[in-house]
Amino acid sequence: MLRVEGDNGSGKTSLLRIICGLLAPASGEVRWRDHAVARLHDSFSAELVYLGHAAALKDDLSAFENLELATRLAGDAPGRAELEAALAEAGLSTKLGAMARALSQGQRKRAALARLALSENKPLWVLDEPFTALDRQAFDWLLSLIEAHLLRGGLVVLTSHQGVPLNAGLSSVSILL
Amino acid sequence: MMFANTNWFYYAAPQRFFALAGKIIPPLYILATLLAIAGLVIGLGVAPTDAVQGDAYRIIFVHVPTAWMSMVIYVAMAFWAAVGLAFNARLALMLARAAAPTGALMTLLALVSGSLWGKPTWGTWWVWDARLTSELILLFLYLGFITLHAAIEDERRADRAAALVALVGVVNVPIIYFSVKWWNTLHQSASISLSKAPSIATPMLLGMLIMALAFWAYAIAVILSRTRIIILEREADTAWVQALRSVP
Amino acid sequence: MSTGSSAVSAVGGIQAVIVRDLRIALRRKSDTTAALFFFLIVASLFPIGVGPDPQLLRVIAPGIVWVAALLASMLSLSRLFADDYNDGTLEQLLLSAHPLALLVFGKMVAHWLTSGLLLSIIAPLLALQFDLSTRATFVLVITLLLGTPLLSLIGTIGAALTVGVRGASVLVSLLVLPLYVPVLIFGVGAIDASNAGVSSSAQLSLLAAMLLAGLFLSPLAAAAALRISLE
Predict the structure, then answer these.
(1) What DSSP state is assigned to residue A27?
(2) Which pLDDT tens digit goes with each residue over B30-40?
(3) Percent of chain B with pLDDT over 90
C-alpha cells in the first residue's frame, strides 16, 4: 500500500489522477506492466478502480442503480444478489432503492465504497481520501477491504490525513508531498 | 514555410524559433509591401477596364486573394493543429493559435470587399453568393476557434481544444462549401455570383496572383510576429526571456 | 477479464450509458419537455413575425421547422456533460474498461432519443400549422429522422470541448452551428424538391452518407475532446 500525505493543495489528488492517466504529468511518465499508461487507456482502466473525492453518484439514480452502472462500466456483470450483498456490507441494505440525492454524506461515501467489495479482480485501487466522513463501523469495514486486497497481492494507493492502521504483516509506504 | 535543408525539429524549440522568426520577419514585410505595390499598379492601372462591369470589378484584386488566403490559412492552422496534437508539440499549437486572427482578418476583408463589389453590381450591400456565404461560415469557424481559446483559462487545454476544433472544421469545410454551392445554384436561375469575374485577361490574372503573394508574405510575417509574442508570454519565466528583457 | 475488446462487452458499455441517461431523463422529464415546447414555440414565432399569408408560410415552412429543430436540439447540448462533470461521474467514464469512444456514442444516442427523435415525432403538428401537404410532411419527418442524429453527433463534440467552461452553452452554439449548415441545406432541400414534384433522393442520400460518416468519426472526435477537457 502506498499512502500519500500532505497539506491541502499539495497536489495529492493530482498525483492520484496522474497515476490513473487522467492527468498528464509535466515530465516523466507512468508505467503499468511496463507499458506507458498514456498509451493504454481502457486496457489499463480495466485493471483499476479509482474513487475520487466526490462520490461519483448520479443523484437521480438509486444506490443500487449507481453501483450496477459503476460495475458495468468497469467491464463486470455482477448479478442482483452480489450487488445487494455489497451494499448490505456497506450498511445500506435499507437504502437500496433510495435516490442518491436522499442519502446523507456518509451514506453516499459508503455507497461509492461498496464498489470495492466487487473489485477483487482489479489489481490497482486508487482511493482519494477514502476514510473521510466514515463512522467507526464503516472505517473498520473499509480497512478490512483494503487489507483483504493487499493479502490477495493487490496494490492500493490512497491519500489520507491520518495514518492507516494496517495489520502488521502487510507492507506499506508513506510519502509526503 | 518548410525549410527543406535544415533539421526542422531544431527549430521546434521556442527559443530557437523565436530567434529565427525574428530574422525572417522584416524582409517579409518589405517583400509584402513591394508585391502589394506591384499588384495594385497592375490592378488599378494596367489591367483594362471591363466592358460590362466598368471599373468596379477591380475590387477582385483584393477580394479573390483574401478569399484564397482565408482558406490557405485555415488549412495551415489545421495542419499545425494536427502536428501539435499528434506530437504534443507546443510550438505547433502556438502557431495554430497565432494564425487564427490573421485568417479571420482575411475572411473579413474578403467579405467586405465582396460587399463593396456587390453594391455597384447588384445594388445591395450583401449578396448571398456561394463564395460570400461560404466565407461568412468560414468567419464563424475562425471566431469559434478564437472564442473557445479565449474562454478556456488553462493554456494547454485551450491550445488543444482549439486545435481539435480546427481539425473538425477543416474536415467540414469542403462539405460546407459544396453544400452552399449546391444551395446557391438551386435557388437562382441566373446564379447570383460575384465570382463571375470578367473573362480573365492575363494582366488581371497576374495582378491577382501578385496580390495573393503579397497577402501571403504579409500573413506569414504577422503570424510569425504573433507567435513570437505568444512565446514571450508563455516562456516569461525562463532564463532566456529574462535575459532578453534586461537588454535595453 | 473482459477489456472491452469482445463485441458483447462493447455493446454492454454502450447499453449501460444509454440506460443510465434514459433513466435520468425519465426522472427529470422537465428537461426534455422544455426542449420540445421550445421547438413548438420558436416555430410558431415565425408566422407572427412574417405574417399569416398561407402561401408564404407554406414556402418557408421547411426552413422554419428545420431551424427550430436545430435550435431545440442544441439547447440540451451543454447539459450533456455538465452534470456528469459536476458529480464526478464523467471521470469514471474516462476510466471505464470500455473504450471511451463507445461510451460517448452511447451518450450521443441517448441525446438523440431525448431530443431529435421526439422532435421528429411532433414535427407533423407543425406541418399542420403551416399547411404542408401530406407528402411534404412525410419528407420533413424523414429528413428530421436522418438529420437530427447528425445534430446530436456533431453537437456532442462541441459539448465535450466546453465541459466546465464558463458560458459553455453560448460557446457550443458558436462552435456547432456552422457545422450544422450542410445538414440544414440538404434537409430543407429534400423537402423543397419533393414540393416541386422532383425526386429528393439525392439530398436524402447525401444526408444518409453524412450520417454514416458522422457515426464513425464523431465518437472518436468527442472522445478525444473529452480527454483534452479533463486533463
Answers:
(1) S
(2) 999 988 888 88
(3) 42
Q: Distance between the two ends of chain B, CA-based, in angstroms?
A: 32
> How large is the ipTM?
0.90
User: Is A79 inside any structural domain?
Assistant: no
Cell 444516442, residue located:
C109
Nearest to C103 by CA among C25, C16, C14: C14
* Cα-trace Rg, chain A: 16
Per the CB < 8 A criterion, the answer to whether C126 and C57 are in contact is: no
Contacts of A73 in chain C (CB under 8 A): 13, 16-17, 92-93, 96-98, 103
Task: Chain B: give the shortest CA distance to residue C145, in Å.
Answer: 19
Q: Does residue A89 belong to any structural domain of this protein? A: no
Q: Residue C64 corresponds to which cell in the numbers above?
A: 422554419
- Chain C positions touching A112 (Cβ under 8 A) are none
User: Nearest CA to B94 among B195, B17, B174?
Assistant: B17
Under DSSP, the state recorded for A76 is -
Q: Tens digit of pLDDT for each residue in B62-73?
A: 888 999 999 999
Q: How many CB atoms lie within 10 A of CB A135?
A: 11
Handedness of CA B223, B229, B230, B232 (dihedral sign): positive
Q: What is the pTM (predicted TM-score) of this model?
A: 0.89
